[in-house]
Amino acid sequence: MTKRPDEVALLAESGRLLASVFALLDRTPLVGRSTLEIDAMVERFIVDDLQARPASKGQYGYRYVLNASVNDVVCHGMPSSTAVLRDGDIVNFDITLEKNGYIADSSKTYLVGEVDPAARRLVQTTYDALWRGIRAVRPGARLGDIGFAIERHARRHGYSVVREYCGHGIGREMHEEPNVLHFGRPGTGLALREGMVFTIEPMLNRGRRNVRTEADGWTVVTEDGSLSAQFEHTVAVTASGVSVLTLRPDERG
Ligand code: MG
Questions:
Q1: Residues 111, 116, 122, 127: is their CA dihedral positive or negative?
Q2: How far is the CA of 232 from the centre of ligand 1 (A)?
Q3: Distance 11 CA to ligand 1 centre (A)
Q4: What DSSP assignment string belongs to the chain?
């Protein structure tokens, strides 16, 4: 569960490369593009430009390099040629990348064209909730502190937190111990130690927290059809606090 410094350095390199994938998406006009086109673009970039491996492809039988979760899709949306992004949509791209045997995992919810203020508020609050969780990370803090910080922020803004999916340890494997829940009680759960590397990836819904999986076996949607947003970073516990290994260029400084 705890990584050596040289392993954390390799994970940081994977994280840096993955951040550059999101920088590419930031430059990409999304209106009118299908999520399958975006999947193909990201695959070319990871393989050809970054000389890395899209770690989700082939994992658990999944055939794509990213999840594209639009509007009421909570997570695990599958890229499709018929899923064309429209003005006013929100879409989460969740991407993993392996370099030198170590995997980084991150996601960002994008605003497609002109998005109405209520949806923008959900997206911003979800981003802020992720950072509430990140700021709770330091040696000696407990996993419950992270979940508590996230859920408190969501509730304060009238949103619910999905409970069925959680963050996870990460390293040579995409999903390692521990599970990182996005709700919890402060002062409970595993104590964090320097060298732990895991994801934090809250999903917030405008309506109720309940979700269901569609017939394709992958796509997870809100049961009440309400909008859902998500952000994810891979983080490492350092001697004095936290290092965000997938920090994007637009988040620096
Ligand atoms: Mg993840």
A1: positive
A2: 7
A3: 14
A4: -BPPHHHHHHHHHHHHHHHHHHHHHHTS--TT-BHHHHHHHHHHIIIIIS--B-TTTTGGG--SSEEEEETTEEE-PPP-TT-B--TT-EEEEEEEEEETTEEEEEEEEEE-SS--HHHHHHHHHHHHHHHHHHHT-STT-BHHHHHHHHHHHHHHTT-EE--S--EEE-SSSSSEEEEE-SS--TT-SPBP-TTBEEEE--EEESS-S-EEE-TTSS-EEETT---EEE-BEEEEE-SSSEEETT--GGG--
106 CA to middle of ligand 1, Å? 7
> Order of strands across the sheet with 228-230?
160-161, 203-205, 228-230
**40/30 Cα distance (integer angstroms):** 14
99-157 tens-digit pLDDT? 999 999 999 999 999 999 999 999 999 999 999 999 999 999 999 999 999 999 999 99
Q: What are the two backbone dihedrals, phi and then psi, of residue 94, each rounded to the nearest 5 degrees?
A: -115, 120
pTM for this model (two decimals): 0.97
Distance between Cα 201 and ligand 1 center (Å):
7
